């Protein structure tokens, strides 16, 4: 446990006091903290709240909390103007059905491009001042929905692809992000800032990206809901890449219903990510995803339990007890638990190097990043080699002299997709077919459920979706989640399962800011 100075302890007490307050905007009181999108939209409709007031509240929370939590890299200087526009539109179109995100502030991971006054840097000084050609595809959809783009969230620099020594939640631009439940605990990444911000009520909803665990892990340890969509369901155009084969953009929110509202807004075909989004469009349900928010969504669902190695609760008695109770709750809700299953070669799949994932991703990252940098309107760097040279020249910026760039260097040493990479990709396909896919089909499962986030490599290498829902808190107060993963296009089932579990348990609590 870290030694916390007295003045810092006093500040923490101040944060706890703030979390118990409500704000009064009219003659009626509305508590913005912990408010869902539905709550906020109802307040808009009843003229108890405006988008400007909501946005100002979040900007105030950012000023108070961000010096400690370091969840946000920068705020959008045009956020209040966007909120004012939403308020004008609401008055002018009072009889028109507006999007559920209309007037709602949304925070974006700092790898998601915006064509405005904000930077898009993946947390790196190397991209500070670069100019993108257009909004990312998901941002264009958010704007069309009337959302307010609040700012950019901190992340593991280069989405965790800079260094083997890089701390979770750290970037050169953003500093060290902190878990709002236990400040000394791992906030996870790479979308750590997005999860920290929504957990601490610095924003209503956020977007993260995932290549392997970057949404599901921070959602789990920050007591948030994260949805990792099927690869291609949401556009990756304008998102600083790791590998298009695994990259996906998804919501991190406080509730399943909020995450589904965001998911509905961002999915669909994008000509700038044509191949992947066209292929995944076949999975889009007519009428959107909100129809799958069913209180009894667990009834009849077949959930697989893979004991090895995911249910190892050595030195984790609180998690062991929690999942014993969760099993009972799931059964009472009508779910069928298919226990003691095994995924073929699971130990290989979970090993980044043995599976071939490491070999493939290192080569794919260089190709994808070089292509992204070349398309920028202007930039201090135009290739991965330029990024490495920039870091070497400017190593004294913040902590960068303490964090190497071993992964960037390893990627730069690759030379396209050669025989080794092709063999790795072939092996990943074989592991997926003979492992997760075969298990799901053989036992006719709707999803596999696991504690925490250790299941993410299984989902990553197959482009599969997953949802993480708060499942409890350990003896130190650190949150942990439950992960449900399914086959491509199974978001409707995962939403039913995740929402059913959330409504049956209602576990999530506001953060405690423990030292």
Query: Which strand order do you get reading across the main beta sheet?
Result: 3-5-4-8-10-9-14-15-13-11-12
Number of domains: 2
Q: What class would the helix/strand composition place it in? A: alpha/beta
Radius of gyration: 22 Å
Percentage of β-strand residues: 5-15%
CATH architecture of the largest domain: Alpha-Beta Complex
The CATH topology name of the largest domain reads: Amidase signature (AS) enzymes
Tell the overall outline.
Answer: globular
Main sheet overview: 11 strands, mixed
Strand tally is 15
- In the CATH hierarchy, what is the class of the largest domain? Alpha Beta
CATH-level-4 superfamily name of the largest domain: Amidase signature (AS) domain
Mean pLDDT: 94
Uncertain residue ranges: 1-8, 16-22, 24-28
Helix percentage: 25-40%
What is the number of helices?
A: 18
User: How far apart lie the N and C ends?
Assistant: 8 Å
Pfam families: Amidase
Organism: Rhodamnia argentea
Protein name: Probable amidase At4g34880 isoform X1
Domain Amidase: 54-453
């Amino acid at each position: 446990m870290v030694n916390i100075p007295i003045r810092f302890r006093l500040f923490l007490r101040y944060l706890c006091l703030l979390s118990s307050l409500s704000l009064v905007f009219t003659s009626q009181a509305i508590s913005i903290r912990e408010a869902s999108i539905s709550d906020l939209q109802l307040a808009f409709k009843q003229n108890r709240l405006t988008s400007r007031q909501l946005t100002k509240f979040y900007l105030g929370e950012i000023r108070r909390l961000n010096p400690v939590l370091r969840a946000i890299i920068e705020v959008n200087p045009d956020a209040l103007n966007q909120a004012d526009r939403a308020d004008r539109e609401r008055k002018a179109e009072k009889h028109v059905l507006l999007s559920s995100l209309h007037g709602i502030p949304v925070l974006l991971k700092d790898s998601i491009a915006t064509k405005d006054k904000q930077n898009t840097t993946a947390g790196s000084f190397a991209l500070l001042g670069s100019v993108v050609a257009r909004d990312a595809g998901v941002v264009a959809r958010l704007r069309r929905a009337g959302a307010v783009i609040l700012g950019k969230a901190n992340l593991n620099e280069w989405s965790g692809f800079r260094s083997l020594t890089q701390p979770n939640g750290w970037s050169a631009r953003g500093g060290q992000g902190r878990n709002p439940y236990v400040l000394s605990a791992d906030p996870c990444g790479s979308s750590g800032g997005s999860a920290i911000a929504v957990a601490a009520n610095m924003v209503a909803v956020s977007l993260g990206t995932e290549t392997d665990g970057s949404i599901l892990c921070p959602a789990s340890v920050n007591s948030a809901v994260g949805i990792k969509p099927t690869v291609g369901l949401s556009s990756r155009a304008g998102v600083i890449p790791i590998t298009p084969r695994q990259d996906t953009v998804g919501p991190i929110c406080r509730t399943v219903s909020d995450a589904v509202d965001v998911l509905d807004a961002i999915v669909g075909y994008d000509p700038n990510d044509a191949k992947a989004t066209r292929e995944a469009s076949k999975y889009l349900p007519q009428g959107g995803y909100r129809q799958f928010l069913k209180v009894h969504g667990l009834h009849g669902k077949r959930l697989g339990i893979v004991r090895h190695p995911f249910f190892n609760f050595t030195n984790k008695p609180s998690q062991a007890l929690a999942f014993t109770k969760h099993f009972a709750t799931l059964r009472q809700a009508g779910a069928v638990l298919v226990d003691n299953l095994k995924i073929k070669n699971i130990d290989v799949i979970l090993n980044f190097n043995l599976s071939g994932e490491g070999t493939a991703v290192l080569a794919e990252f260089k190709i994808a990043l070089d292509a992204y940098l070349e398309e920028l309107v202007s930039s201090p760097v135009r290739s991965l080699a330029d990024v490495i040279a920039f870091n070497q020249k400017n190593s004294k910026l913040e902590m960068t002299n303490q964090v190497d760039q071993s992964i960037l260097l390893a990627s730069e040493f690759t030379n396209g997709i050669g025989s080794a990479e092709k063999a790795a990709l072939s092996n990943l396909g074989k592991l997926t077919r003979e492992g997760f896919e075969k298990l799901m089909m053989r036992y006719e499962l709707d999803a596999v459920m696991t504690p925490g986030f250790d299941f993410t490599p299984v989902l990553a290498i197959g482009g599969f979706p997953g949802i993480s829902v708060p499942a409890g808190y350990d003896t130190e107060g650190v949150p942990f989640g439950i992960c449900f993963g399914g086959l491509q296009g199974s978001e409707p089932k995962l939403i039913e399962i995740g929402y059913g579990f959330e409504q049956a348990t209602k576990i999530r609590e506001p953060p405690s800011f423990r030292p």
